[in-house]
Amino acid sequence: MCPSNFRENTILICLRFIFHKKSIFAYYHQSSMKEVKSKISSLSRDLLSEITACRRSIHANPELAFEEYETAKLICSFLEKEGIEFKSGIAKTGVVAIIKGKNPDKKVVALRADMDALPVHELNDVSYKSAVAGKMHACGHDVHTSCLLGAAK
Predict the structure, then answer these.
(1) What is residue 39's predicted lDDT score, i.e. its pLDDT?
(2) pLDDT above 80: residue 36
(3) Alpha helices, DSSP H only, in the chain?
(4) Which residue, 11, 14, 86, 124, could crosslink 79 as a Cys pair with Cβ 3.0–4.6 Å?
(5) What is the mean pLDDT of the chain?
């Protein structure tokens, strides 16, 4: 069994990695590496609570492949709230967000995450334990999806 804060620490590491990559493009030429690292840490801390809540919601409500209707609704709601353009219903339940930078015709960065769960019975005793018998996010896709939402924000 994982320590209770393992997934939260994983989210923070993933967010820092994502923001590191994102920040390098945005700040590299105008900031020192110390400033970039400081910005990454600040963004990660600011978003940790919200992204952890997203992950726990996804974790508690697992859906198998091509059945992720509620997960897709959560993602679409998040993107809509943030004013981010998206297309849903891709390959049945997929969602594609489109964030255009200052040179969308020159450079493209694609980030992706799986959002399906596995047909596994969860034995963990945590407040966000799977509420669906025989289904669980034992694969980390709840973390991947949440971190991508953090990157989108």
Answers:
(1) 84
(2) no
(3) 6-27, 33-60, 69-81, 141-152
(4) 86
(5) 84
| Full-model pTM | 0.78
Cα 60-13-117 angle, rounded to 5 deg: 30
Exposure string for 36-64, b = 16+ CB within 10 A, e = fewer: beebbeebbeebbeebbebbbebbbbbbe
**CA gyration radius for the chain?**
16
Q: What are phi and psi of 92, to 5 degrees?
A: 90, -60
Cα–Cα distance for residue pair 147/72, rounded to 1 Å = 15
Residue 89 phi, psi (nearest 5) = 75, 15
Convert the pLDDT of each residue in 73-130 to its tens digit: 999 999 999 999 999 999 999 999 988 888 888 888 888 999 999 999 999 999 999 9
> What one-letter code names the amino acid at 90?
I
Given a contact cutoff of 8 angstroms between Cβ atoms, the answer to whether 99 and 59 are in contact is no
SS percent in the chain: helix, strand, coil, step 5: 50, 10, 40
Q: Are 95 and 86 in contact (CB under 8 A)?
A: yes
